[in-house]
Design goal:
Blueprint: H1 3-16, H2 18-39, H3 45-88, H4 104-108, E1 134-140, E2 156-164, E3 167-176, E4 185-190, E5 197-203
Antiparallel strand pairs: 1-5, 2-3, 3-4, 4-5
Helix pairs in contact: 1-2, 1-3, 2-3
The chain binds a DNA duplex (16 and 16 nucleotides) through β2.
GO molecular function: DNA-binding transcription factor activity; sequence-specific DNA binding
Protein name: Putative transcription factor WRKY family
Keywords: DNA-binding, Nucleus, Transcription, Transcription regulation
DNA sequence: CGACTTTGACCGGCGC
DNA sequence: GCGCCGGTCAAAGTCG
């Protein structure tokens, strides 16, 4: 019933945070496991309903993941264009908002900034503290592309690669080649549940123009 | 020769 | 204290 509102809520959830998808799916998975254990003892009608629900949820999840990756691609290309444009126009072009908060960078990267997974305004004050501006970017690549490389226009020097606990794919560590003038770092790793999606985590902001 | 990658060593934080 | 785990270093190798 009223599947539209259901779709809307899940959409909002996923747009708020990509990691919600993983957590929710894991929770649903574990719950279905626990329910599945008891299904042989109780009724089988409810299990069929649950399976259908799971099927629907899985299809919805997949669809949302694809939509999200499309949105991320659009965002990435748009951001690249914006960076290029800003590097060609070295003016700071801060219109009038000299007040703190709502600065220019916030507007350009609000969508994909997922650093603090806070749901529903944990604390009234938007803690714009000394956190080093971590942002995540999701890039869809070919499955045959085995090298963890995200072409974002900047030049990087790889300084490490590790296998992590809950992901068979290794994680690559990069520093900006302008180091130590520029201290930006990034980590690249394939997504756990969709290996055609690379997850790049950026830390810091470049203090030099876009070398493209 | 210089810049970059590879890859095991090393280190610090955290939980037991 | 010990071991696990994520992150970094740096020596050796590779490429142009
Ligand atoms: Zn940089």
């Amino acid at each position: 019933m009223d599947s539209a509102s259901w779709i809307n809520t899940s959409l909002n959830l996923n747009i708020n945070s990509y990691t919600v998808h993983q957590q929710v799916s894991k929770k649903v998975e574990s719950k279905l496991f626990s329910l599945g254990m008891s299904k042989f003892h109780v009724k089988e009608e409810s299990t069929i309903e649950l399976e259908m629900e799971l099927k629907r949820a899985s299809a919805e999840n997949k669809k949302l993941v694809e939509m999200l990756s499309v949105v991320c691609e659009n965002y990435n290309s748009l951001k690249s264009h914006l960076m290029e444009y800003m590097s060609k126009n070295p003016e700071k072009l801060t219109p009038s908002s000299k007040k703190r908060k709502c600065e220019s960078s916030n507007k350009s990267s609000k969508i994909m900034r997922i650093n603090n997974g806070n749901s529903q305004s944990s604390y009234n004050d938007e803690e714009e503290t000394i956190r080093p501006k971590i942002s995540r970017v999701y890039v869809r690549t070919e499955a045959s592309d085995t090298s963890l490389i995200v072409k974002d226009g900047y030049q990087w020097r790889k300084y490490g690669q590790k296998v992590t606990r809950d992901n068979p794919c290794p994680r690559a560590y990069f520093k900006c080649s302008f180091a130590p003038i520029c201290l930006v770092k990034k980590k690249v790793q394939r997504s756990v549940d969709d290996q055609s999606v690379l997850v790049a985590t950026y830390e810091g902001e470049h203090n030099h123009p876009h070398p493209s």
